[in-house]
Sequence to fold (213 residues):
Amino acid sequence: MNARVLTPLDRLLIDAQNALDTVFGAPAAERPNPSAREPEVVLDDGERRHAAGLMRINHVGEVCAQALYVGQAAVARDETTRKHLLEAAQEETDHLAWCAQRLDELDSRPSLLNPLWYAGSYAIGVLAGLRGDGWNLGFVVETERQVEAHLDEHLQTLPPADARSRAILHTMKADEARHADNAQAQGARVLPQPVPTVMAMASNLMKTIAYRI
Fold:
């Protein structure tokens, strides 16, 4: 039996379901949580709030990554590019689930602005994808390199005793590097200035807000 060819309406409905699951649902990870082997430790109130703020930023980052990749895949012209984007999005779902679990362990919550973060990122993903697959992949590379940088920053500033959060971020960082390398190998174009600078500015604004809200 031949596989059913998805229509534009089918893809729109799938994207809408993904948005609802990402923002309001509880996505399940396909891979084990890398923090499972690390013991839980007691953090003081200041350490717990700081760790929760950082993990909330990372959770927002994964919400945005879902939206970006799904938006880019929606308009990708090449099926190989679309497949790469959706595979990366699935791994970001693992990250999303792990960050949500860690926030719960820290007696905290995700950002209240997640619907806004998702909508804005999806729109950016569509606009990036409309430029063509080379630019589409270039956007993936730049996004992942910037995410790697902020994960490095978080690994340095997490409370020293918070091994559970640290284990999650190490795995996320390795995944992001692989996504960027794969996109580079598939013909990503280098984004011209001021695009990377604007992306970094938007990311810094998001991190500032998400740390608290």
Residues 8-23+43-210 form a domain with the Ferritin fold (CATH 1.20.1260.10). Residues 62 and 122 are 12 Å apart (CA to CA). The chain has a mean pLDDT of 86. The chain has seven helices and no strands.
